[in-house]
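ARCHIVE CARD
Drawer: 12
Card no.: 0347
Subject: one protein chain, sequence and derived structure
Cross-reference: see card 0346
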Amino acid sequence: MSNLKKVLIVLFIASLTIIVGVLFSMKTENTKTDEVLTNEQDILSTSPQANKESEVEIEEVIRKETIQIAMIGDILMHEGLASYAEYTSSFSPVEAYMQQYDYLIANQESPPVANKFPMSGYPRFSSPDYIIRDLKTAGVDMLNIANNHIVDKGEEGVKTFFENLAVYDMPYVGAYQSKEDANTDRIIELKGIKVGIVSYTYGTNGLYLPQGSPYVINYIDEEKIRTDVQALKNKVDVVVAHMHWGPEFTTQEHETQRTLANLLNEAGAHIVFGTHPHVLQPYTKLTNEYGEDTHVFYSLGNYFSTTMTDISYIGGIASVEITKEGEIITIDRPTLLATANLLDSDGIYRVHPLADTEDRAARNLDWVRQVLGEGVTVE
């Protein structure tokens, strides 16, 4: 090998040795730097001040929701009203009002069973089944069927009533298809607010279902009411009770109504809607020993009916506002939208806001305010 080749080989080996040494030195320095940074981070992470500054406070978001629950009075159709081919026209002046509530209940007093029984009025009613359809279109979400006319056409009539409710997919309360149905709680949930609904009637005009019938009617029984309300109260935010009670055609509640209202208040019901007198009766707010309030509308009057006295053509939509903020429930703003069932120039009875028709109606808003009393807004 020539001297030149030897020199080149020596130089190559020397250069390689230098490069490897430099790389090793850089790696060592990086390792030391990483260790220093890691140590500094460990020191910072164990510093109380650093931890405090790095914490992100997460505030609990408390939702606030409000709904309106409402009920209209008696749908009790005598022969004139029962002969109508449809009812959308009869509710058209108040349809926008009926649809503004989150949940609207109606007392369907005359059994809508004329698809199987001859149409009839007082004293044993049979109304067109399509009243269910048109009430639903107008804004009704549930029918109360615990009233004194539920058995007007006997057990077969009750069966037909339930069949027609199913056809129009209309929820109901107060009478039931079986014991199992009766034991199924009527609970609705709106915007996270749970509302339970119960209903009872004072009687059924001396008519009763035959022994062994599968159907169940909720009659007023103090112990049952107390038990039902207290059990339901544990499952919901608000309990609504419908009561078919009191003497007819008197604008003052009876002592028996007051007694039952106090029982409902003590049991924990929050709202009471009353029907049967066919005329408006007072509103009141009761408070029990636990500081719990019950809003009581003793009677909502007739909504769509043509009964004997002029004041029975005046009714209304009773409503309250329910607010839930966290776990706190507030019920306020009791209101009655007063209505009048009037015969219009085309020969059709229609339900109108009383405020728009005081010049035609049997009574005005001042009369309604006098009947309802203080504590409730009459519109």
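Annotation on reverse: Residues 1-5, 7-11, 16-48, 50-56 have pLDDT under 50 and may be disordered. The CA atoms of residues 355 and 365 lie 7 Å apart.
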